[in-house]
Specification:
Elements lengths: L2 H11 L9 E3 L7 E2 L5 E11 L10 H19 L2 E11 L2 H18 L2 E9 L4 E11 L14 E5 L4 H10 L8 H5 L5 H9 L4 E4 L4 H12 L2 E5 H4 L3 H7 L4 H10 L6 E5 L4 H6 L3 E7 L4 E5 L2 E3 L11
Parallel strand pairs: 4-5, 9-12
Antiparallel strand pairs: 1-2, 3-6, 4-6, 7-10, 7-11, 8-10, 9-11, 12-13
Helix pairs in contact: 2-3, 2-6, 9-10
The structure holds adenosine-5'-diphosphate and magnesium ion.
The site of adenosine-5'-diphosphate has 14 residues, from α1, β4 and β5.
Length: 313
């Protein structure tokens, strides 16, 4: 048998038997075929992860595989969609690299009960993993970046800065640093995202490039100013955790601009306050008239020049 097809079958297809109930034609043809149940909508997103850019060269490739799938699923979480399928485009330096990446990818599909509905596999000088994800949600209920309103409160659900702390430890040679697992293991919060959507939350984003930078997307798309209260940020669990190891300046920098925690940030009218606390979300700011994201200490605007990640910056 052709070695490429044998590898695809052995490493991917036979290890991911799960078929989503909406799939009428699964992996193995030129494309997969799915039906969208009545009253539902299809939500699709794609993400690329490249060795040396999205993960350090010396990191295990199964971890790179699971990170790539989990990061892609996080985009569905931000929309409030329930994951159903992934499609995988992967380049590998050699067969061993392909096998290692497949371990993490397959395991993550099994963990979240998502179907590996198709893919493309190539040999290339660099390892990279492109994951396209598809999910479902009730018609017209997707959370978007453009639905924040003046007088909404701003919230976060999940960690902030812990992944950046893990990467920092890894890069400084502390491969067993206490935060490294936060960098290596991404938890896509799609159950929480769906719960927010069902609660009627309309505007949400997942934090991949840094809290302030990503909130900037909501601010711009919704044409509101988002004020983040530094005193509320200091009450987050992540702050306590980071302060145990890092100084205040480093801690705040990681919390406000560190990427890849994949927390959900969203806005909501004050009437949702109690329900959101029950979901484990933390209030961190307000939306007001204007534009941009402002860091506040009480009534005072704090100057910050903290930038999130910029691939072309
Ligand atoms: P095509 O040439 O039509 O694009 P391929 O020969 O690349 O198809 O792939 C053969 C089949 O294997 C297709 O059904 C494709 O979706 C699937 N496939 C290829 N690579 C992967 C992968 N890494 N994981 C899962 N399925 C894959
Ligand atoms: Mg084809």
């Amino acid at each position: 048998m052709n070695q490429e097809f044998e590898a695809i079958a052995q490493l991917f297809q036979t290890r991911t038997p799960f078929r989503h109930p909406t799939t009428s034609l699964g992996n193995g043809d030129d494309a997969s075929v799915h039906h969208i149940p009545e009253g539902m909508e299809l939500v699709v997103s794609t993400d690329i992860a490249v060795e040396g850019v999205h993960w350090p060269q010396d990191m295990r490739l199964d971890i790179a595989g699971s990170r790539a799938v989990n990061a892609a699923l996080s985009d569905l979480a931000a929309m409030g969609a329930v994951p159903a399928w992934i499609w995988l485009a992967i380049s590998a330096k050699d067969k061993q690299s392909l096998a290692q990446m497949s371990d993490g990818i397959v395991q993550t599909c099994l963990t979240h009960n998502v179907e590996l509905a198709g893919g493309d596999t190539v040999s290339a000088p660099i390892n990279s993993i492109n994951v396209t994800v598809g999910g479902l949600l009730s018609k017209d209920t997707a959370m978007t970046r453009s639905a924040a309103k003046v007088n909404d409160e701003a919230w976060i659900l999940g960690d902030s800065g812990l992944s950046a702390a893990g990467l920092k430890q890894w890069l400084s040679g502390q491969q067993h640093g206490s935060f490294v697992p936060h960098f290596q293991m991404i938890t896509p919060l799609y159950k929480q995202g769906a719960a927010l959507r069902e609660l009627g939350i309309q505007s949400c984003i997942d934090i991949s490039d840094g809290l302030l930078q990503d909130l900037g997307h909501i601010s711009k798309a919704s044409q509101v100013c988002i004020q983040i209260d530094i005193n509320l940020v200091k009450q987050l669990d992540s702050y306590q955790q980071l302060q145990a190891v890092f100084n205040t300046e480093e801690t705040l920098k990681m919390m406000l601009s560190g990427g890849e925690d994949f927390a959900l940030c969203f806005t909501a009218p004050a009437t949702k306050y109690t329900s959101l606390i029950e979901l484990g979300a933390k209030h961190i700011g307000f939306c007001c008239k204007g534009n941009g994201v402002q860091l506040m200490q009480g009534e005072k605007i704090i100057d910050y020049n903290i930038k999130g990640y910029d691939h072309f910056g």
